[in-house]
From TrEMBL:
May function both as a monomer and a homodimer. Keywords: Disulfide bond, Electron transport, Endoplasmic reticulum, FAD, Flavoprotein, Glycoprotein, Membrane, Oxidoreductase, Redox-active center, Signal, Transmembrane, Transmembrane helix, Transport. One of its GO terms (molecular function) is protein-disulfide reductase activity. Belongs to the EROs family. This is Endoplasmic oxidoreductin-1. The keyword Magnesium does not apply. Its main location: endoplasmic reticulum.
Length: 388
């Protein structure tokens, strides 16, 4: 297969690569603007929780690892009060309501959720803390990825994280779809994070941020399975937004209210456009093919347990900025899983926090940027091949 030029159907999804390329060209400018708006650029989280699984070294002190907290005065007061007053709201009143969380997760959740009402944590302006190369790596990062794949991907690659592509493919083919989907989602997220690192790489000699093709080829470009998985994760996120669309569109878009009229209208308009395009692109992923066999309830619980573990593993990431984006994107994937698998066909029961909605759309945006970056890296690779 030519470098980074996947074609045909995306494994375990129900659409083709070219469908996703087309939908991404439409979605990416909308998402890029959406995440700059007042509602979507602030996310509250606690970056100082202890790692619950092992003794983690102190957070790294590299300059590029640090996170700048938002000034509380930037945060609209009514987010906290209006969301608090919606706690007791009947979901049937409006179909989709924001809710507050007092405990770490409810039955419907696939991951630990923190939100506007959490006593601990602080607001972060995501625009001021972009996800990019930080220099974090070594044993600490390897341990996190190892714990994710070895211990929490249903032991699919217990002793074989570095296994050959053929071996991995065989193991994946022989396992059930639910376990494959789980692995693909995480591998897709990992590929996306690697793509951002290589797309915004700090050249220590010049001090400039550059696009690093060698980095991308080593980590993603020369691994067709990882490129596939990146696309797969994107298709699942688009499906979750499509499923959420009627409720975003008809009932609760006004909940994106931020206090400033003009801003609110633009946010509503952007959310509607993203949702419309997610629907219009046709089916991308069929969640109904999962958890249908006998024993699937048990499998679903295991799936949830592993995903919740992974959300907690994010508190072990040893670089503050990587921890921020790791937590946000795991929360975004967890929200998508909740939309797809927790409410059967009764989205009237949807319960999402503001933090989950923000994480969902920011995660989709990060994946959208990665899918676009793959095209840029392919062009760079072709140009370089011609010159050589
Ligand atoms: P790693 O990316 O650490 O990968 C470890 C092993 O996993 C590889 O050797 C390979 O066997 C396997 N692997 C790699 N990619 C995939 C894939 N897509 N699917 C399946 N298996 C795979 N660094 C930054 O500079 N900026 C960040 O924002 C950042 N965020 C991070 C967030 C998290 C949650 C974590 C755990 C780490 C983050 N890092 C970040 C560190 C970064 O991901 C790498 O760990 C680090 O750059 C070292 O990379 P590496 O080449 O050794 O391989």
């Amino acid at each position: 297969q030519p470098y980074c030029s996947p074609s045909g159907p995306i494994s375990d999804a129900c659409c083709e690569f070219r469908t996703i390329q087309k939908v991404n060209s439409e979605l990416s400018p909308l998402l890029a603007e959406l995440v700059t708006t007042s509602f979507f650029r602030y996310w509250k989280t606690n970056l100082h929780k202890d790692c619950p699984f092992w003794q983690e070294n102190p957070l790294c002190i590299l300059r590029d690892c640090s996170v700048v907290e938002a000034d509380e005065s930037e945060i609209p007061e009514h987010w906290k009060t209006s969301a608090l007053s919606s706690v007791d709201q009947s979901p049937l009143d409006n179909g989709f309501s924001l809710m507050s969380k007092s405990c770490q997760w409810s039955e419907a959740d696939f991951c630990a959720v923190e939100d506007d009402f959490s006593a601990e944590g602080c607001y972060i302006n995501l625009l001021k803390n972009p996800e990019r190369f930080t220099g974090y790596g070594g044993e600490s990062a390897a341990r996190i990825w190892g714990a994710i794949y070895r211990e929490n991907c249903f032991n699919l690659f217990e002793n074989n994280l570095e296994g050959t592509l053929t071996n991995r493919r065989k193991e994946l083919e022989n396992t059930c779809m639910e376990k494959r989907v789980f692995y693909r989602l995480l591998s897709g997220l990992h590929a996306s994070i690697s793509t951002h690192i290589c797309d915004q790489w700090l050249d220590r000699k010049s001090g400039e941020w550059i696009r690093n093709l060698t980095c991308f080829s080593d980590r993603v470009g020369n691994h067709p399975d990882r490129v596939q998985n990146l696309y797969f994760t994107y298709t699942m996120m688009v499906r979750a937004v499509a499923k959420l669309a009627p409720y975003l569109r008809n009932h609760q878009v006004h909940q994106f209210c931020t206090g400033s009229g003009a801003d609110t209208h633009r946010i509503e308009d952007l959310v509607e456009q993203v949702a419309d395009k997610a629907v219009a692109c046709g089916p991308t992923f069929d969640e109904k093919t999962l958890f249908v066999d006998s024993g699937s309830m048990l499998l679903k619980e295991e799936f949830k347990t592993h995903f919740r573990n992974i959300s907690q593993i994010m508190d072990c990431v040893g670089c503050e900025k990587c921890r921020l984006w790791g937590k946000l994107q795991i929360s975004g994937l967890g929200t998508a899983l909740k939309i797809l698998f927790s409410y059967d066909d009764n989205p009237m029961l949807y319960r999402l926090t503001r933090g989950e909605v923000v994480a969902l759309f920011n995660t989709l945006n990060r994946l959208s940027e990665s899918v676009a970056a793959v095209d840029e890296f392919r062009a760079m690779h072709q140009k370089q091949a011609k010159e050589d």
